Amino acid sequence: MEWTKPLVAPFHFEDLTPEETKRMSLKASIGEDMKAAMKAKAAQRLSAIRLLLAAIKQREVDERKELSDAEVVAVIEKMIKQRRDSITQFQAANRKDLVDGETFELNLLSGYLPKQLTDAEIEREVSAAIAQTGAKGAADMGKVMGVLKSKLAGRADMGKISSLVKSKLAG
Question: What is the domain range of residue 130?
Fold first, then answer.
């Protein structure tokens, strides 16, 4: 028997509208970027995306569950921190070739994070969290950071926030 049409119409993500793309999970979006990189024969980009997908898959296997977008963002943040540390080490060793590769990966990974908050917005959030928790000194830093971590995860560098909270509570 010969078929003239496929039984199931092929689905192409290129046909998606911008609104449909926004609703796509972060992991699905990364997968689509990998396919686009394959088609464009962008080896360095493809390699970086594959590393990211492997890290996501590893965490899913470790936790035996599908990761939410927030958990995928946490994986991306961890990889960004690793890239920053590597860049520092490679610069100390005077390895420009490795610095360039890590910088490329860092920039690619940063593109998957939500829009980052400005310093003024971070300052406002920290002040609001201190007022909300009624923190008076450095001993209350944990309470403040707990509130901020849930609000700002993925949208700001938590190290920067921690130092800002510490300075506000100390002063």
Answer: 119-170
